[in-house]
Amino acid sequence: MENKIDFQNLAQKYQTPYYVYDFDYITKQYQELKTAFKARKSLISYAIKANSNLSVVRHLAQQGSGADCVSIGEVKRALKVGIAKYKIIFSGVGKTDDEIKEALELDILMINVESEAELHRVELLAKELNKEARISIRVNPNVDPQTHPYISTGLHENKFGVDINTAKRMYIKAKNSDFLDPIGIHCHIGSQLTELSPIKEAVNIVANLVRNLKAALDIELKFFDVGGGLGIVYDDEKLIDTNEYAQTILEALFGLDITVVCEPGRFIVGNSGYFVTKVLYEKINSDKRFIIVDGAMNDLIRPSLYNAYHKIEVLNQNDNKSKCNLVGPVCESGDFFAKDIELPQTEHNDLVVIHSAGAYGFTMASNYNTRGRVAEIAIENNQDRIIRDRETFEDMIALEEKYL
Ligand code: LLP
Prior knowledge:
There is one protein chain. Helix content is 31%, strand content 24%. The chain contains 12 helices and 17 strands. Bound molecules: ligand LLP. Ligand LLP is lined by residues 47, 50, 68, 91, 151, 153, 188, 191-192, 227-230, 263-267, 302, 359-360.
């Protein structure tokens, strides 16, 4: 990955820490996937949870993207920036009554149902509103996605979706209800997938169910949602080829007249983004070297939470490298970006660039230690612009101060 972004200039202009996203890269990723599915009707519904900044989502809306949402808040973000309601999907194992009602009133494409109990609630609420709820059912195909256990979702031991037999029962119930319209089927087996074979296995299982529903129950689905999960480069991963990915899915759907839906998050934005922080101090405890930077686990939690690897680059000319831990100021030993990595000797204010930070970076940030969430910057056509202000102390206390 070569840098075409002038991180120094951005640091001078906007201070540190900051996230920066290359919007041209986001366009490229979206178009690559859309093109891979060109042989069919397809809908790319960007998984907003990966990076929900309104400017990012609007940028994708302008490409024609739909949205995969997991809260009504995400649905509203999508609508706010012009994603058409018929391209919005609402998923998640624990939707509240209010969320379901609002989704029905907003008339989005479909609610992706994850349990029999939820189907029952959706039916009741649709009845109350005298509407027919368009639904899909999330099937858990019991396939091992061969990824990190925290981001694996397609096994029966995970909380997501329902097994095939339950799904069948749910489709029958939906077909017989005046208030449910079963239009889709969904599966998502995990995130950061770098192997095609589990995806192939899963889509084949689900495609067979679609055929079975049609033949045995005369239920004809319109949308086949393969979820998200395409992996990106953090280190030296060999990625799934997008054309092969699309081809595998299209082959599984042979003979079916159905629109393919795909919900990529990380693939679209992950490698577009960098988290940039600056060196505050170096210190040595016994013989352990630490570089302390102004960014922390509250800004980018992936290393602390998943032990995730992110490529780290120090922007200085020093060749004198040695092992160290790169850590933030938060009062937790778990506050680190990398452990035991070789980095050059640093000076106060040297910049450190953390790569592959466009997905699940800012969206998982918090105000822990009363640290304001950082600024977000977009680069498009070589122009930079701020797309979210750095949070101030006043922003952080606004909802509490009035109760003093
Ligand atoms: N669709 C569903 C139903 C999902 O659960 C997810 C992600 C996606 C789509 C998008 O997956 P993607 O294309 O981004 O892999 N915080 C974790 C990742 C959690 C993923 C949750 N679900 C991380 O930082 O790695």
